[in-house]
Amino acid sequence: MAQTERCEQIRELAAELALGIADGEERALVLEHAASCAPCRRELERLAGVADELLALAPEKEPPLGFELRVLRAVEPPAPARKGPWPRLALAAAVLVTAALTAGGMLIGFRDERQLADQYRAALEHAHGYYFGAAELRDARGARAGAVFAYGGDPSWITIAVDPAFQGTVTEAELVAGDGGRIPLEPFRLENGVWGGALPVSPRELVAVHLVDRDGRSILIADLPR
Amino acid sequence: MESSDEALLAGLAAGDRESAAAFVRRFQRRAYGLARTILGDPHAAEDAAQEAFVRAWRYAESYDARRGQVLTWFLRIVRNVAIDRARLKGNETPDPELLASRLQLEARHAEDEYAPIDERSHLRDALAVLPPEQRRAVVLGAYFGRTAREVAEIEGVPLGTAKTRIRTGMLALRDRMEVTDGPD
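Output (structure tokens, whole complex):
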């Protein structure tokens, strides 16, 4: 089959995406196309395989004495908060979404959780959704500093709300994928403490959202529920 | 019988101490070696390798076997943590040729139990015979997370040239690997 012009454009960018160095816009472009084009998807997988094998060429080295013990201490229980449920925030976020989709926001007074769950499902169906998650943003000391809401559907989107104390210091936002890869949200600019926009990847591929200061430090982190 | 990488990762995620210890023992030389390759400094590399294990534990549930082996998934985490650390410290631009030559010299002596030796040594050889400007571009991207724009700045060439070098180099490596693998 003759390659389309779009395929040519995508293949120009595929190597950079495979190496994890494509910018957010290019990444979104390639992934969107590859989702519906098997030859381009296959090409991307091949190049990703090359990138993986390149890393595996790095020589092994014996770490310093005590390394294993230090790692095991770091990963010992108690399990991280991420693994626990997020019922209150998820429900609160469901109210937000459903309210946005329902005239007059009539759900504010609902106390029946089953009814709320029905509304949540209806909201998902209304927007072709398959995922809705919410998580608290926390600073380095674990204090709450805002919230993140992520929606998977058509389109997928994310909304980030930052408490006033941090609004002046946050300059960028990055999505963290399951393999640790970072995807910048661009352009990122808080308006009255809130930023919202389309998600370039499925929220199911994401594990966290990092808000970064002007020195590149992750100062607020939200671990997304799975 | 030795547990599979996938089984150890599942055990790590579930908080099983024996699995966690086995996972760390199995991958620590890999993790530390890659972090040293990227960061150079032993202390920074140790910190980065440790952080990579913590992330592997936290993100273990997101591992998808259809997208590759546990080893390659984990090495991507190590790479990303090390690159973050390097950027945070404002590390100077590394010398990609020096790294490429170290991959040649040191890896040849390393035992490699995770892939047929032919496949990996073919990739190593393919990297060695790439035109130097393509090799530098690929190494800067793969190991140091440098974008095409950054490669262009480092090499003093237009952005389009940097993009072409990255792409052409990766395609040459892909072709060489597929010759080794045989047809699909």
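Residues 5 and 71 of chain B are 8 Å apart (CA to CA).
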